[in-house]
Design a protein that fits this description.
The structure holds two protein chains of two kinds. By secondary structure, chain A is mainly α. Chain A has a single domain, classed as ABC transporter involved in vitamin B12 uptake, BtuC. Chain A has helices at about 1-10, 10-35, 40-60, 65-85, 90-110, 120-125, 135-150, 155-160, 165-170, 175-195, 200-215, 220-245, 250-274. In chain A, helix 11 runs parallel beside helix 13. Chain A is globular, with a radius of gyration of 19 Å. The termini of chain A are far apart. Chain B is of the alpha/beta class. Chain B folds into two domains: about 10-70 and about 150-235, 3-Layer(aba) Sandwich (Rossmann fold), CATH 3.40.50.300; about 80-150, no CATH class. In chain B, helix 3 (about 110-120) packs across helix 4 (about 135-150). The relative contact order of chain B is 0.18. The model of chain B is unreliable at about 235-239 (pLDDT under 50). The chains are: A mainly alpha, B alpha/beta. The interface between A and B is medium-sized, with 29 and 33 residues.
Amino acid sequence: MMETIFEMFSYPFMVRAFAVGALVALCSALLGVSLVLKRYSMIGDGLSHVGFGALAIAASLNMAPLAVAIPVVILAAVLLLRIRGNSRIKGDAAIALISTSSLAVGVMVISMTTGMNTDVYNYMFGSILAMSEGDVVLSVAMAVIVLVLFVFFYHKIFAITFDETFAQATGVKADLYNTLIAVLTAVTIVLGMRMMGALLISSLIIFPALTSMRVCKTFKSVMINSAVISVVCLVTGITVSYVWATPAGASVVMANIAALLVYSLIGLIRNKGK
Amino acid sequence: MPLIKCENVSIGYEGQTVVKDLNFAIEKGDYLCIVGENGSGKSTLVKSLLGLKSVEKGRITFGDGLRQNEIGYLPQQNDTQKDFPASVYEVVLSGRLNSRGFHPFYTSGDKREAVEKMELLGIRDLERQCFRDLSGGQKQRVLLARALCATKSLLLLDEPVTGLDPIVTGEFYQLIRRINRDSGIAVVMVSHDIESAVEDATHILHLQETALFFGTTEDYRRSRIGRKFLGGVHDGNDF
């Protein structure tokens, strides 16, 4: 057991995978609570598909993947928020529209340049080998920003999530915080998607929040539980992936499903006990 | 000086005017009921009073120490809150945000205020309960406590009794009456329930794109529009 662990951490790519993964898991869990409660869950899914398209284009043009993907996904995030606010196309349809379009564009670009190869497979389902030194630096920076935001603006984020109209009426700049959350979500998704895969990254946003809501009764405990669950599930998933050579993204999602089942059971027993 | 004064106010969406030429004022301790049919511009007016929607013409001024972000607002119920994991205490305390400004944390004064308001509304024993597990009437009390945390002088209630059963509705009106009388907080209530409105309110604003009537409740009862509208209720033609 211990040997496996030592062996695992002797590979630099594993250390990077754990570092980036844990930080991305932490950020997405915190952002996820707010997104899920505000009925924005699908935005994460839509953004990851946009990210896929952007990565494909970057690869075909031989450009740095993150330098292209991050601004494009941020733009898409802000756009999706706006669309939700006021538009003829309703939010859920708009997300489906944008995500399938970007997926199609991505697949077209890849098939015309490199052909459908392992790269595509890795984008779709993630690869544990994908993290570079630069990713580690970027994810540390992002985690610091997200944590500072959540510590200092926790009460405002609570107010906006619980009741946006009331928050605005009492002078909270809701649009500003919504945009900030969208931008941070975009960066989180781009960072995490090469490891988790474009099809699976949104699970990091949705699962921890839903899991902790089965049991927790205060906003604060939901936040803390989500963060812990998310990081624990990620570490478990990556370890499983290393030991049994399973795909990283799918293993992490499996761990999250297990956590959701356990918490649902606890919630059920608690409610029965009343 | 009135708390809120509306002068020749017109509000609209994308060039289409919803409410026009409104003139009215709310003084300290008033109890104003805004009545009118669906689509008569009540919610639009509420948004403008809160500063969420700018006016097309005219102006809304605040006085007597009231600032726009210090209105104690009780919104119409919304969907998100049905399964929201938050304790009653967290919700009530969030009413103190407008006194925080850029300061990120609540002070002990804020916390004391939240506890006081919960005691005033008889929900102190629910403090640790989850908001989503409460009954409709309890939820409204919690949101009222939050509104009271946000204001010293004016409550703005938007259809507060929608979905409540008659007994709970009665209790809620009684509570509002008590707050209005005992602490001198002015109340502005948007309501469908015209009968209760004329019973409790000191003033009535009857909206139908413009103000069909604004004045004291007694004058409203005697006015042609008031008699028509109140009569309509008794005939059961309201629905």
